[in-house]
Structures are given as structure tokens and as C-alpha cells.
Amino acid sequence: MTILESPALPSHSDEALSVWRSQLNAAPQNRARVLVERIRKQESVLTDRLVKVYGQHPNVDALVQDLIQAAVQASLARAEDLWQLDLHRQAHPDWHQQGAVGYTAYVDQFAGNLQGITEKIDYLKSLGVTYLHLLPFFKAAEGPNDGGFAVAHFEEVAPTLGTQDDLLQLTQALRKAGISLCSDFVLNHVAQDHEWALKAKSGDLNYQNYFCLAKNTEEVAAWEKTLPQIFPDTAPGNFTFQPELNAWVWTTFYPYQWDLNYANPKVFLEVVSAMMRVANMGIEAFRLDSTGFLWKRIGTNSQNQPEVHCLLQALRALMEIACPGVLLKAEAIMPTQQLPPYFGLGESSGPECHLAYHSSLMAASWVALAEQDVSLLRSVMAQTPKVPQGSSWLSYVRCHDDIGWNVLKPDLEALGDITHERLIEASQFFAGLTAGSYARGAAFQTTHTRAVHGTNGMASALTGLESAQTPEELSLAIDRLLLLQGLSFFMGGLPLLYMGDELGLGNTTKEELGLRNGPDGRELHRPYWSEDKANQRHIAGSMASRIFSKIQQMAQLRKIHVAFKGNADVGLLANVHPQILGLQRNQDLIGLFNFSNQAIDLKFSDLGLGSIESIDSTSDSPTDLRLNSYQFMWINIASVASPVVLIH
Ligand code: GLC
Question: pTM of the entire structure?
């Protein structure tokens, strides 16, 4: 068995067709009617995309009917409240674009277990959160498991975090509070102790076909020639020898995470069916983990292949049948140039993901902070396309992963920096290796001091909160952190806060790091929640309260201001100042972000917005603006004659 050689499809399309037809006949009429309509709408795109991927197989029709059957079954099993939610959301496709604010956390670090998360709902509400992404909470591999991303069971809640009942209760409580729960769904791989991998190891050929196996070192070498490495230090290479199989299994990430073989249509059928069952637990959004890696092609980097997008569009079509109220979010940490297809703007155009991480914007904002120059940020913004109706960028400052610098390489190359010197310098700066650097992060996946790969550390450590010695230094650090959040909250359709950043929570302590499983450097920014720190948000003037209250204020503004409703069109204001990023959101809002440690005066008239007579800000002259060091401003220009500063 070689990679991408996949077994023939089953040839029972008539059987599946008659099964779902009779299921619909037996179903309540109102549901059956709606489902027939949804199938009618989605069937052709589903067939088209699957023919593009599996066209060489004789029985693609059978696959289509099997998938529709799975979708019908899942939809008929949907609880009444979720069914109603789907109907409502179908009628209001911009339901998730009403000033959304996201929050992401590990269940255990944030609240111990799922029940503990239920107790955190009031806190999340007070912060204005409408979307909660909990990092993997389904059963993970025994031992090291990549923070839960080595999934041993798609549908069983990790016993240390709770039960399925806890999950159901949590999703209901969150929904009542107006918060959608997002769950990871790891599409690319399963843990080596997942049932499929165990069966494959035991000699079951059917399950061996679920994985990408190379027979010998020559085959491995042929693939490796063009493959990058995700964890070059801790998990070099992309294949792991499995003595039981006498073959090399494709393991893009850690050796215990086995890549699935999507050239085998059964894999797609099983994965999608599992996802639809998980949706029925009340999950309202899926973070499609490592989406870019699903299709392998010799001679390429096996990322972002056209088949990935056909599969995602087929997945979207099936979700539109089974649970149209559920969002799909692409976790494709790729250069900006590769992202539009995740919104369905690629070769095969059509609905794909509702959300995608804007990792280049995130990384470029950190470069801008280190350089006190916004040129790279500006060029990333200039390449950021307008996304289709009903979809949005997810913006963020930090998350559970490192800040990956590689996504910026094409942008730098376009600016003539082919050695990526600026990234090397930024990574050194945030590792605290540059003279005068306030940052207390660490390089990721390299022991080389001139590292580019990634940077670890909590936002507070990277912006100088941990190293600040004086009140002035502390204020500057807070301003830096808020500047980045100000940009994320301004730019995104969904700004995502990483647990603790709203309080200035620091890096994981040294003692705690010593107790963690495995050598993964990302543990540096996976600290435990601190109740003490959270309580400080009530003490006026404290660091926690200064950060928390500003973020709260931004979340509020997103709820009330029209510019944050519906699809956003965020464009660059040309030539503002080399150290100030100027953005315009729809017709009525501009954002100015000063990345320098100096105050900068701007003439409002230079922004090219038309004639300005007065401005309600702190500046002396009505037509002038002063942005202090690391200050940002959101300005309502709905009435160009008298703009109003909303936040600064
Ligand atoms: C995603 C996750 C990351 C994980 C990887 C492999 O990129 O964010 O934490 O290591 O997938 O599952």
C-alpha cells in the first residue's frame, strides 16, 4: 500500500438513497420538508466537489448518497432547540457578525473541568464574550498528547475534564448566555492510540488504508524532499517508522499523531459523520485544526492543495444540510496569499469556512511593535482581501501556539528581504536577546540564537509587563498590550482573546513548567488561571483593571457601533505616518495605531477623509491629533465634519 492509493468506493448508492428517503418519509413532516429543500440546494455542489477529489473512483455517487444519509440522520437526531436555532440562523446568516468577541482557553487551566467553565460564564459575559473556544476536550492520547491535539476519540469527553452530560449542560448554559461554544475538530490526524490506528497496527488492512504509509526509506525520502518540518527540534521529519506495520506512517506533527489518508473516501465519510454527531452535543462552531495539510501531493509542500478546498466545500455543504447554524473556522496558519481559498475564493469557488485566523496580521503586528515601524503590517493589510458575505477574519494577539514567523516570509520577500532578516531580528527581540528589549519570551523549535521559526510567551511577557521596573515602564507595557488588542478588536469580525491576556497574566511559572508533560516550549504561555489576578480587576488603577476595563470598553463598542455589524470592509488609510497604522472600517470608523514609543502629531486633514472642522479629542487644535506613545484611537467619522473619538 503506498500513499494515496485508496480502495474502491462501496457501490450501494441506491441502498443509501433509499435509506435516507425512507428516513425522511418516517420523519416529522416539518423537518422532512426542510431537509428535502436543503438537500436539493446542496447536492450538486457536494457531488461536484467530490467528483473533483474522487473522480477516479467508479462510485462517487455512492459516497454522495452515504454522506447525505449521514447528514439526514444527524439532522433528524438534532434536539429541538438546536433545530430551531438552525432555522433562525439560516434566516439570519449574519447572526455571528453582530459585534462578536471571542475567548479561548484550555479547560483545565481556566477552570479545572467543564463544570468549572459553567461557573465562569458570568465572568465571560462581563467581558462581552459571545464565542468561547475551548481547546481540545475530547479524549486524548495517554502520555504526551500535544495539548489534546492527539485525539484518541472524537466523541468521548476526556474523563479528567468531565462527562458528556457536563458538556451538554455547558453548551446549554452558554447558549442561554448568548455565547457559542467552539470545539476543535482535528481533521488531519488521530492519536496513535485512536481505535483506527490500533486496528491498523493489528494488521487490519481496511484501517491501514486510513493512514498514509510509505513502504521504505526511498519513498520517505522522495516525499521529504519538498516537505517543510513543523517541529524541527522536537519532532524532526514527517514520517515515523511503525514496526507493527513494517512501514513509515506520515506524522506531520508529533510521531504519535498519525495523518489521515483523505484519498480514502471512507476517511472523509467517517470524519464528517463524527463531526455532525459532535455538533448535536450543542457545539456551535468547529475550529478545523490543521486544515491545510489534508491532501498530500508528491513534489509539493503538501499544504493548501486544491483538494483541501474541495473537501472543505463538501463538508460545508453537508453541514448546511445537517446543522446550518454551526460555523466552520479554518485553522490554516498560512501566509495571507494562501488564505482567500479558505473563504471559498479559490479555484473552486463557493461557500467554505465562515472564519479564518489572520495569522499574518497577528505576526506582523508583533514585528511592528519590535521595529516601531508599520511597513510590514501595512503590506499585509494591503494584501488582505475582502471576504465574502457571511464570513469574517478572526483576529488575535496571542493564542495557545507560538507566534509563527514563517507566515510572513512571502510578504518580506515581496519587499526585497530575501534573507528574512527582519523576522530574525523580531524573534531575537521577543526572546529578550536584543539589547534593551523589554520582552521575556523564548524562541520556539530552535536552539539557534538567530531563530526565525516561532516565539513563545504570554502577551504580557512579550510587551514588557513582566520586566517593567517602574510605573512608567509598566504604563508603556500596558499601552503596548492594549495597542495590539485595539488593532485586533478593530480589524476582525471575531477578535479572539487568549485566556489571561485581559488581565495581563504572565508566563507559566518555572515550577509549573517543570511539572508539565514533555518538552514543548509552548507550555511557556499556557499558565493556570489566577483568581488573585482576576480579583485585581476590581481595584481601580491596578494593572489588571487598566487592561480589563479597556478591553471591556472595546467589546461594548463592538456591540453598539454599526461598523461592527455585518460584513466588514477594512481598508488601509494611505501614507498616514511610518509609525502609525491607519485603517478604515466600513464608511464610518477609522482606527489609528501608533507603534512608536514617541508621541506623534497628525493633521486630520492629511488622512484624506475630507474636510474636518472639529474633533472631540484631547488635542489642542480641533484639526490636529496627538497619538501618545503606543496609543490607539478609534474615531467615528460617520459625520466627517465632526468626528468623535470613541476610545483612546
Ligand atoms: C494546530 C494546533 C497546535 C497543534 C497542531 C497539531 O496547529 O493549534 O497546537 O500542535 O495543530 O494538531
Answer: 0.95
